[in-house]
Amino acid sequence: MLRDVLDAFWNEDVWLPPNTTWESLAPGPDKAVVYNDSNHVFYPIPLAFVFIVVRYVLENYVFSAFGKSLGIKDTRPRKAPNNPKLEAAYQASPKLKDVSSLAKKLDLSERQVERWWRLRRSQDKPSTLVKFCENAWKATFYSCNFAFGTYVLWDKEWLWDIDQCYIGYPHQGLTNDVWWYYTISSAFYWSLAISQFWDVRRKDFWQMFVHHIATIALLSFSWICNLHRIGTLVMFLHDFADIFVELVKASKYAKYQRLCDTLFLALIVVWISTRIVIYPFYIIWSTSIRAPMLLPMFPAYYIFNSLLCLLLVLHVVWTWLILQIAYKTIQAGQMEGDIRSSSSDLSDSSHNSNHNTPNHVKNKKTT
């Protein structure tokens, strides 16, 4: 029964170009090129847990000490008084809807309920140091992975001529460096999808979750269908802008305002050029227009291309959020809020913008 379902799902007419079989793409000593093993698509999952352990060590023993040396405090909000009935109501719905009825039910004043609710909500917020460590980890990975991607792709013909992603497909060989680049990148996104449920919760939680799942699906499908060439270009392009996203947030938490403003300006340039210009007008244009000219289409390719378009929609949403922050930056004279952050962080930053001057003497003057 299960075998029949799997055979039906992995139908060669769906996943492979015409006149191509899974057997023809299976690795073996008698093959003209080195094909990727479809079973290796599961290798990133255990490696993801290695990433989670490495992240835990770095955040708690390296980035935490570094953040404290910059003056970032690990202060947490005061805990709400113990009240089992209010706690049960909070767990049922974190949003306070009907204050009056809840106050009457618990024999409390509305002000007491509202005050407890504010303390309880603040209690769930991570400290600035925790958020700084998270950004430092991501910035470290994206920087290393972008450097590794540059090393891997620099001598690859499809980096300079994107048509090479399709010429000769699907009989394109796989090198060890590309295998590692794919596996490491996939493992990192698996680790983000897993750890997101206990990481800093932001306003775009579900957007990020969809982003991680779409990215994992893209990497998995492109691996199985031997579309690793275009996959490496997509990964390489995305890592560059993500470096600046995390560095902007980390510098903001460290209160290096001048550095934050400079990095934010660089982020706008890099983000728009890579995510809004190069990605749709080079990558997606190639997958949508050039690919059908160079290879026969098959259903799985349309799935792959649809996921690429889904990422573009998320890019547009995030670009709008970044431009909103840029507008506030021009008004306030400094970068406020947090890129892709929670609405509460943004509102807190706006209300306290007159008190955000860094303690570091060299950064006292905002741009």
From TrEMBL:
Record-annotated Homeobox domain positions: 94-127
DNA-binding region: 96-128
Location of region: Disordered: 341-367
Any one GO molecular function term: sphingosine N-acyltransferase activity
Transmembrane regions: 41-58, 179-198, 205-224, 262-282, 302-323
Pathway: Sphingolipid metabolism; Lipid metabolism; sphingolipid metabolism
Bilayer topology annotation: Multi-pass membrane protein
GO BP of this protein: ceramide biosynthetic process
GO cellular component: endoplasmic reticulum membrane; nucleus
Domain TLC, residue spans: 130-331
Subcellular location field: Endoplasmic reticulum membrane; Nucleus
Superkingdom of the organism of origin: Eukaryota
Record-given protein name: Ceramide synthase 5-like
SUPFAM superfamilies reported for this sequence: Homeodomain-like (SSF46689)
Low complexity bias: start-end ranges: 341-356
Catalytic activity: sphinganine + octadecanoyl-CoA = N-(octadecanoyl)-sphinganine + CoA + H(+)
SMART domains in alphabetical order: TLC
Keywords: DNA-binding, Endoplasmic reticulum, Homeobox, Lipid metabolism, Membrane, Nucleus, Transferase, Transmembrane, Transmembrane helix
InterPro entries: HD, Homeodomain-like_sf, Lag1/Lac1-like, TLC-dom
